[in-house]
Design brief:
- The protein has 567 residues and is of the alpha+beta class.
- The chain folds into 3 domains: 1-106; 109-243, Butyryl-CoA Dehydrogenase, subunit A, domain 2 (Beta Barrel); 250-517, Butyryl-CoA Dehydrogenase, subunit A, domain 3 (Up-down Bundle).
- The protein has helices at 5-8, 11-14, 22-40, 44-49, 52-58, 67-88, 96-103, 236-243, 245-255, 258-275, 292-319, 326-353, 366-378, 383-395, 410-427, 432-440, 444-462, 467-479, 482-487, 493-507, 511-517, 531-538, 560-566, and strands at 108-112, 128-131, 137-140, 148-150, 161-171, 174-186, 195-199, 212-216, 219-221, 277-279, 285-287.
- Strands 1, 2, 3, 5, 6 and 9 form a 6-stranded mixed β-sheet that branches.
Length: 567
C-alpha cells in the first residue's frame, strides 16, 4: 500500500480548514483530493481492472482527514474515470487521453445520474436526449424537479469540468431507455451554453462539497457524446445496469472508507482515555480507561476494525472474480457496505459520547467523521435500498450468495433463520408483493446486516484474526438481535454478559499493540490525544483578556457590575 503519511506534514493538510470560508474550503478539498490521488499513482489499468492499488486508495487513513476530498476523489476516479475506461478499452480508444487527464486532475469529472424529483427511481428519469435530423442530440431538463441532484458542477480552480449525464434517449419519438452521455459542463470559470448549476447550501456537520442542482436547456451534443449504442434493445434494464456498474464498485470501495474512519475514531478515543484521569474509588487519580464503561465500546471498535479488514480482503476477491454472476458481486458489495457503515457509525457515536464535551468539537474529528459517514451510507447506493433489492432477489432465487464456511456458528444460524422466516411469510401469502412490502421490507436491512456479520466472522476466522477480537465481534453481533438467540435457547442474557467480559479481558492487555499495528497515528491531528498536543493547540486559540494587570486598573474601572448591582 502506498503510504501518504508525508502529506499530513504538508501545509496542504496542516491547514485549519474550519477557519476558512466555504469557497476556500472547497478549493482546499479539491487540492487535497488531487494530492491523495497522485500520491497513489493510480493509472487507467488500476481503474479498469480494479487492482489492489485501486482498493487500497479507499482505505488509506488520509481519506478521513477531509470528507469532501474523499468524495471528490471517488467520483473522479471510480464513477467518471471508471465508466469512461470501460468504453476506452473497447469501442472508444480515442478517450484514453481523456481518462488520463482525469486521473491527473487536468480535468474535473462529475457523474449526473439521479434527479431531484425521483431519487433512486432512476428508470423514470425525465432528463431527455433527443436525436435530431442533423445527427446531434438535444439534451434537455423538462422541469426544475428533473434537475440532476448533488453532483458538484460549479466552476472551480479554473479547471474544465465534464460530466457523464444520464438521460432518456429518444429516437423518432420512441424512448429507448436511459443512456450515458459525455457533456461539457464548464471551463473552470463559466458554465457552458445551456448548462445551469445552482449551488446548494452545505450539508450539516461535514466538510463542505460544492453540491449543486444541474439542469440543461436544449444543449446540443455531437453524436459522439453518446457513450453506448443508439440501437433499440430488448434488454434495457440489463444494459442500463451495465452502464452504471461503477456505482456497484463504489458501494464496496466507498463503503470501505468506514475502516479508516473507525480506526481514526477509536485511536483518538483510546489515547484520550489513557490521558484523562479522574479521582478513583481510593481517592487517587486513575485513567478513565480503567473503567469498563470506556473499555467496552473501545475494544468492540477495535475488534470491528480488524474483522472488517478481513472482510474487505475477502470481498475484493469475490468482487473481481468475473466468473461469478454480477448479482452475486452486487450482493457482496451491499452486505459489506451495510455492516461497515453500521459498525463505524455505532462505534463512533458511543466513543464520542465517552469523550464528553470534547466529542462535540470539530477539531477532535469524531463529530465530523460521523456526519461524513452518513453521506457514505447514501452515496453509491443507499443501504436500505441495496438491502431491499438483495433480499427480494434472494427470496426470488435470482442468485445465491456464498454459504458460510462455519455453518454451525451462531451468526450463520441467525442468518438462515431470518431468511427462512421471510420465505415462509411470503410463500404462505396469496400476494407475494404485498406480504413482502408489509412484513419483510421493514426487516431487509437487518437481514442484510446479518449476512454481513456472518461474512465478516467467517473471513476473520479463515484469515486467522486474533481469537479474542473475533469473540468480541461475535458478542457484539449477537447483542444486535439478542432476543433471537435467547428465544432459540442458545444463550441467556447472563451468558452474553460473561462471554463479553471474558473476551474483553483477553484483548485488553494487548491494547497498545493493537493500536500501533493500525498505523494511523501519523494521520491523527486531534489535540486531545496528549498533553503536548493540547498545549500546542491551545497556543493557536484567539485570546481575549485585559491588557492591564489587576493592580494597574484605575479605581473607576473596578468591578462596575457590582457597583451597579448595589443601585
Amino acid at each position: 500500500m502506498t503510504h501518504t503519511s508525508h502529506l499530513c506534514q504538508s501545509d496542504l493538510f496542516k491547514k485549519r480548514s474550519e477557519l476558512l470560508s466555504r469557497d476556500a474550503r472547497v478549493v482546499l478539498s479539491y487540492e487535497r483530493a488531487r494530492a491523495i490521488g497522485l500520491a497513489h499513482g493510480v493509472i487507467l489499468h488500476d481503474i479498469l481492472d480494479l487492482t489492489q492499488k485501486f482498493w487500497d486508495l479507499h482505505t488509506d487513513p488520509i481519506m478521513t482527514l477531509d470528507g469532501a476530498a474523499s468524495t471528490l476523489l471517488t467520483i473522479q476516479y471510480n464513477l467518471v474515470a471508471g465508466t469512461l475506461a470501460q468504453y476506452a478499452a473497447t469501442t472508444r480508444p480515442e478517450w484514453v487521453p481523456l481518462v488520463e487527464d482525469i486521473l491527473q486532475w487536468n480535468v474535473i469529472g462529475q457523474f449526473c445520474l439521479t434527479e431531484l424529483g425521483r431519487g433512486l427511481d432512476i428508470f423514470r428519469m425525465k432528463t431527455s436526449a433527443t436525436l435530431l435530423p442533423s445527427g446531434e442530440f438535444d439534451l434537455h431538463t423538462p422541469s426544475p424537479l428533473d434537475a440532476k441532484f448533488m453532483p458538484p458542477t460549479i466552476p472551480v480552480k479554473g479547471l474544465p469540468c465534464i460530466a457523464i449525464v444520464f438521460a432518456q434517449l429518444f429516437v423518432n419519438g420512441e424512448c429507448r431507455g436511459p443512456r450515458p452521455f459525455l457533456v461539457n459542463i464548464n471551463d473552470g470559470y463559466h458554465m457552458c451554453n445551456g448548462v445551469t448549476s445552482k449551488l446548494l447550501p452545505p450539508r450539516g456537520g461535514s466538510t463542505p462539497v460544492n453540491h449543486a442542482l444541474t439542469s440543461f436547456h436544449h444543449v446540443r451534443l455531437p453524436r459522439s457524446a453518446l457513450l453506448g449504442d443508439i440501437k433499440k434493445s430488448n434488454r434495457i434494464h440489463r444494459d442500463f445496469m451495465s452502464s452504471i456498474w461503477r456505482v456497484t464498485v463504489g458501494s464496496l470501495a466507498l463503503g470501505s472508507v468506514a475502516i479508516p474512519d473507525l480506526q481514526m475514531s477509536l485511536y483518538i478515543a483510546a489515547r484520550y482515555f489513557q490521558r484523562r484521569h479522574v479521582t478513583g474509588v481510593h481517592g487517587k487519580p486513575v485513567p478513565i480507561l480503567s473503567y469498563r464503561t470506556q473499555q467496552l465500546p473501545l475494544l468492540h471498535a477495535i475488534s470491528q476494525a480488524y474483522v472488517l479488514k478481513a472482510l474487505y480482503k475477502w470481498a475484493i476477491r469475490q468482487f473481481v472474480d468475473k466468473s461469478l454472476d454480477v448479482g452475486v458481486r452486487h450482493g457482496v458489495a451491499a452486505c459489506c457496505k451495510a455492516v461497515m457503515v453500521q459498525h463505524a457509525q455505532a462505534s463512533n457515536f458511543a466513543l464520542s459520547e465517552r469523550l464528553g464535551a470534547q466529542g462535540l468539537f470539530e477539531y477532535n474529528r469524531l463529530s465530523n467523521l460521523y456526519s461524513e459517514m452518513r453521506g457514505v451510507s447514501i452515496a453509491e447506493g443507499d443501504i436500505l435500498g441495496l438491502s431491499m433489492r438483495l433480499v427480494a432477489d434472494s427470496l426470488a432465487h435470482t442468485y445465491t450468495l456464498h454459504p458460510s464456511t462455519h455453518p454451525e456458528g451462531p451468526l450463520a444460524l441467525h442468518e438462515v433463520s431470518l431468511f427462512e422466516e421471510a420465505t415462509e411469510t411470503v410463500s404462505s401469502s396469496s400476494d407475494f408483493t404485498q406480504a413482502f412490502m408489509q412484513y419483510v421490507q421493514p426487516r431487509c436491512q437487518l437481514m442484510v446486516e446479518s449476512m454481513g456479520h456472518r461474512m465478516a466472522y467467517d473471513a476473520a476466522k479463515d484469515q486467522g484474526v486474533s481469537q479474542s477480537l473475533i469473540d468480541l465481534y461475535l458478542i457484539n453481533a449477537i447483542k444486535m438481535d439478542a432476543a433471537w438467540y435467547v428465544e432459540c435457547g442458545m444463550f441467556t442474557r447472563q451468558n452474553i454478559v460473561h462471554m463479553e467480559d471474558t473476551a474483553l479481558s483477553a484483548a485488553l492487555p494487548h491494547l497498545d499493540e493493537l493500536l500501533t499495528a493500525m498505523e494511523v497515528e501519523p494521520y491523527v491531528s486531534s489535540p486531545i490525544i496528549s498533553d503536548e498536543r493540547w498545549e500546542e493547540f491551545s497556543k493557536t486559540l484567539p485570546v481575549y483578556s485585559s491588557p492591564l494587570k489587576q493592580a494597574e486598573v484605575p479605581a473607576q474601572q473596578k468591578p462596575f457590575v457590582l457597583e451597579r448591582a448595589r443601585l
